[in-house]
Design a protein that fits this description.
230 residues; alpha/beta; Endonuclease, Chain A; 7 strands; MITD1_C; MITD1 protein; MIT_dom_sf
Length: 230
């Protein structure tokens, strides 16, 4: 029964039905553990325990881990494509940690526009987001006032859609991660800024991020029973 349940979990995983596969994985491992406990310390039982070790590390503490690698110049990885699977209807609160949500000057690798596009995706649903928590770092030099002004404008605009944006700043933040209160957590190596600069203002991919070439980066998706709060 345990083997069949794990097999079903793999099928669901390949079909991108991640939440259902997570449940099957956990149920299958629990069933296999019951068998291991009943085998004692015989040769066969010892081998079974060793074989399960990696799976237990993979799902220890109720965590699920999936890795997506975005190749250099790949397209089709707009925010909806990347996040929609995890934005279920019960999502009402989102945490964004990214040290480079800064001004829109061309010299900056990261842009407030990326964060704005992410917020637009949340507003469109199907989730019912009511609160977004942003933790970032201050821009250096003269760009700080533009950064604060831009974030306040996004904050005001979100308020008209019934969404509260809480903004925090940290000088020591380094990690980049996005968390939803349904337990899903996404870590992107380059944060929200994994898109390449468009060739021109009127080139394909300027408006539609699905058509925009990407920088090479890795996306790690986790599921935990509890998400930490800032």
């Amino acid at each position: 029964a345990g083997a069949e349940t794990v097999k079903r979990a793999v099928e669901l995983d390949l079909a991108s039905r991640f939440q259902e596969s997570l449940v099957c994985y956990q149920e299958g491992i629990d069933l296999l553990l019951q068998v291991v406990k009943g085998t004692g310390r015989g040769g066969g039982g010892g081998r079974a325990r060793g074989g399960l070790a990696a799976g237990l590390l993979f799902f220890s503490d109720g965590k699920y881990h999936k890795q997506i690698r975005i190749e250099e110049n790949a397209t089709g990885f707009g925010y909806e494509k990347l996040f929609q699977e995890y934005l279920t209807e019960i999502v009402s609160e989102v945490w964004v940690e990214d040290p480079y949500i800064r001004h829109v000057h061309q010299a900056s690798r990261y842009s407030l526009y990326n964060f704005l596009r992410f917020c637009e995706m949340l507003v469109k649903g199907p989730c019912k987001v009511k609160t977004i928590h942003l933790l970032t770092s201050y821009d250096e030099g003269s760009g700080r006032s533009q950064q604060i002004s831009g974030l306040e404008e996004i904050q005001k605009s979100l308020r008209s859609y019934g969404v509260t944006l809480n903004i925090g700043f940290s000088s020591s933040i380094h990690d980049r991660e996005i968390r939803f209160n349904n337990g899903w957590m996404i870590k992107i190596g380059r944060g929200l800024d994994y898109f390449k600069k468009p060739q021109g203002r009127f080139s394909i991919g300027y408006c539609d991020f699905d058509l925009r070439p990407c920088h090479e980066t890795t996306v790690d998706v986790f599921h935990t029973k509890h998400t930490k709060k800032m």
